[in-house]
Specification:
Elements lengths: L4 E5 L5 H11 L1 H7 L5 H4 L2 H10 L1 E7 L2 E10 L4 E9 L8 H15 L5 E7 L3 H9 L3 E7 L5 E8 L3 H4 L1
Parallel strand pairs: 4-5
Antiparallel strand pairs: 1-2, 2-3, 3-4, 5-7, 6-7
């Protein structure tokens, strides 16, 4: 490729690229569940802009192109909710998702005081589950998304991020 992928905090200028990338990346998840109304596909650009401004958002860049992103925020119980992790399909399987997760975990723990990390993924999303388990997440329960998709809830303690970095 000639260039390496870099991870950095997202800026407001990244919102449109994140929005487009998210739409591309979550098509396969929608197909897996036969539901094209999942949250990442119906989210508005304005909502993505709000998340970039408010939450802890990281992007992976290849040159000027955003090729991955992840978002996190602290919930009322002190946990960091991490979501919408996505990597461009042509670059999946090269560790970019794990690098994005580590960047979000570090910032959420060190800058925002997270006590543990929590994320959700669909029950059938085996690739996602493999990644999350590989970086230390364990299933702690189930839930149902607002879109009706059965989800697995995974968590790990905040101090564990250093061990997986």
């Amino acid at each position: 490729m000639g260039m390496s992928v870099t991870i950095s905090a997202a800026t407001g200028q990244d919102a449109e690229q994140i929005f487009r990338l998210q739409y591309l990346c979550f098509q396969s998840e929608a197909a897996l569940y036969g539901n094209y109304r999942i949250d990442p596909l119906v989210q508005t650009l304005d909502s993505v802009r709000e998340e970039v401004a408010r939450d802890c958002v990281f992007v992976a860049r290849l040159g000027d192109e955003v090729v991955g992103s992840v978002r996190g925020r602290i919930t009322e119980d002190g946990a960091a909710s991490i979501g919408k992790l996505c990597v461009h399909p042509r670059l999946q399987g090269h560790g970019i998702g794990a690098r994005l997760l580590r960047a979000a975990e570090e910032a959420l723990a060190e800058e925002r005081g997270a006590t543990r990390f929590r994320l959700h993924t669909g029950r059938r999303s085996e690739g996602n589950l493999r990644l999350y388990r590989r970086v230390g997440y364990e299933a702690v329960g189930t839930s149902q998304g607002a879109d009706g998709i059965p989800m697995i809830v995974l968590e790990k303690p905040a101090e564990a991020y250093a061990a997986t970095a």
